[in-house]
Amino acid sequence: MTTFKPLAGIRVLDFTHVIAGPLATFHLAQLGAEVVKIENRNGGDVMRRGNGRMGFVALNAGKRCIELDLSDAGDRDQALELAREADVLVDSLRPGVLDRFGLGDGPLRALNPGLVYCAISGWGNTGAWRDRPAYDHVVQAATGMTLMAGREGEPPVKTGFPVVDAGTGLVAAMAILAALRERDTTGLGRYLDVSMTGAALQLMYPFACQALTGRVAPPRVGNQGYSGSPAADLFATQDGWVALGANTPRQLAAALGVLGRADIARDPRYFDPPLDAGGPAAFLRASDPAALRTALAGAIREWRAADLEAACAAVGVACAKVRTIVEFVDDAMNHDALESVMLSDGDCSVLSPGLGYRVHASRPDGGASA
């Protein structure tokens, strides 16, 4: 993607720190924008130190970093001049901090009507929760996310990585791109209010719609897939675990053929009418879901995880060995499913997975059908 720079010429003033804001501006920088990151003179972004050093480079490579003390008149004037010339300003400081230094949306819009001002916060910049502090796991708890993992009756479960921070950064980047595209027509910028809570609801979008519309909180189903199919779950194998994704009758019929248990499809203990009776496309349902899952578990336990993964893929059924992230990136690189990108800052270099997509002038295989 080194030649894919659609944001070349766009200037971004970056008042962000830690993960969410820096991830948003990182994507802009990798797409060609000139990003100037403003850090305080008292040590800069906390991610620069300790175990976060590699994380700092991963989120801030390609940016120009400047240390300023906004309480100093000269430094404040420098920040104002940068804002006057910027296309985008991104702020993830506490709501109101930049306002105190004359760097809020109002004063800057008077100087620069085309400025896209993106304010990232925990709870949004309006409403009674505006000044509450927030962290990823706190927002996971507040928005119901921790009561979607695990099973009913168990303690809340936090997602094991900062999913809300990452989601917030991506939502912010998308909002900024949309505002820049609109500015191409109007010549005017926008004020974008991006919250971690709002991003969390986007990540849980179908369930957020159910909660708003029907006042319904989803049941906690552990490792079961979204479809609710008893054949969409995690199962133990001889040497580990697999995630099976047999969400429809057709998919389960194919999986049963792989497992040597085609008899299950016509067994009235599990299906009445039989699994292959036909009908409109729908998610799989069983007469006795627990019994079906037990039967599947017994058959799957006879397999090695990698062998079952390959056998299911061959018949069009989603199935994956449960891997660590290290195992996955190694396998993905070996199978041309991932291209790493080297990011560097001083004496620290980091291999990154890029931006999550590859860019080509045209389809690499010429568009031929499989």
Give a short synopsis of this structure.
Helices cover 36% and strands 15% of the residues. With 370 residues, it is α/β, with parallel strands linked by helices. The chain has a six-stranded parallel β-sheet with strand order 3-2-1-4-5-6, sandwiched between helices. The protein has a three-stranded antiparallel β-sheet with strand order 7-8-9. A two-stranded antiparallel ribbon has the order 10-11.
Helix content bin: 25-40%
pLDDT < 50 runs, ≥5 residues: none
How many structural domains are formed by the residues?
2
Secondary structure tally: strands:
11
Secondary-structure element series? EHEHEHEHHEHHEHHEEHHHEHEE
- Give the biggest beta sheet: 6 strands, parallel
Strand content: 15-25%
Distance between the first and last residues' Cα: 26 Å
Features:
370 residues; alpha/beta; Rossmann fold; formyl-coa transferase, domain 3; 2 domains; six-stranded parallel sheet; three-stranded antiparallel sheet; 13 helices; 15% strand; elongated
